[in-house]
């Protein structure tokens, strides 16, 4: 249900984004792996063993970088991508009283403004090409955007913003046939969570009803479902993939 479509995936050099590329490609999509780390994005594409995919160096907090990436994509595929997955994200954890302006702004710039830039650039191209119907945007938020988390004020605010951005985009783009949804992962085994100390990990795991962390493919499967026409009447939704953690 994604076969033959072109997909643009940010944060594709690692973790959840890399798994999304793998599953979309397995299901027949042409995948553009976009990441600020070109070597990692290239490794994602190389592992797919198909010259039809593309790796691009993209800094999502830089509008020009995104516009350039879409130009390159349209050059190669002669059409804008109609599956967009915003998985690029960062953390800069600190308690509010110690959180620097710089770390607050950096996380908002990448996680929220980056998602906005990609959505705006993609939808302009999709609408210009008149191929909105069947297009799908999936934004990776976080359960932390709903619950908050100590030491993650910047991250929680950015991810709450992604939920609100998703809802608003779904209202504005329904007229073009473009769906916009968010996934809210819980605690997932990726490089992002590798640095969490073991004792803190154990505390979190105890609170998860399934008593384990999630795997990146368990999130990527849901993202692929939302990207595909199998979810054709799901729009403006935020789907939790948390093992039951709220
Ligand atoms: P990850 O393994 O760190 O992957 C994130 C990827 O995004 C990395 O390749 C990273 O590059 C890239 N990236 C970061 N900033 C970028 C930028 N400005 N422009 C382009 N690419 C950029 O993390 P992940 O766990 O897969 O996270 C994917 C998404 O899921 C994120 O939005 C994250 O907030 C969200 N999420 C994760 C969890 C979890 O438990 N892992 C839970 C909830 C939500 P570098 O390697 O160079 O940083």
UniProtKB/TrEMBL annotation:
Gene3D superfamilies: NAD(P)-binding Rossmann-like Domain
Ketoreductase domain mapped to chain residues: 5-186
GO CC entries: mitochondrial matrix
Enzyme Commission number(s): 1.1.1.239, 1.1.1.n12
Catalysed conversion reaction: testosterone + NAD(+) = androst-4-ene-3,17-dione + NADH + H(+); 17beta-estradiol + NAD(+) = estrone + NADH + H(+); 17beta-hydroxy-5alpha-androstan-3-one + NAD(+) = 5alpha-androstan-3,17-dione + NADH + H(+); a (3R)-3-hydroxyacyl-CoA + NAD(+) = a 3-oxoacyl-CoA + NADH + H(+)
One Pfam assignment: adh_short_C2
Enzyme class (EC, first level): oxidoreductase
GO BP terms, alphabetized: estrogen metabolic process; fatty acid biosynthetic process
Domain of life: Eukaryota
Entry's Gene Ontology molecular function annotations: estradiol 17-beta-dehydrogenase [NAD(P)+] activity; quinone binding; testosterone dehydrogenase (NAD+) activity
Localization per record: Mitochondrion matrix
Pathway: Lipid metabolism; fatty acid biosynthesis; Steroid biosynthesis; estrogen biosynthesis
Alphabetic keyword roster: Fatty acid biosynthesis, Fatty acid metabolism, Lipid biosynthesis, Lipid metabolism, Mitochondrion, NAD, Oxidoreductase, Phosphoprotein
SUPFAM superfamilies linked to this entry: NAD(P)-binding Rossmann-fold domains
Family: Belongs to the short-chain dehydrogenases/reductases (SDR) family.
Subunit structure: Heterotetramer with CBR4; contains two molecules of HSD17B8 and CBR4.
Name of this chain's protein: (3R)-3-hydroxyacyl-CoA dehydrogenase
Organism annotation: Melipona quadrifasciata
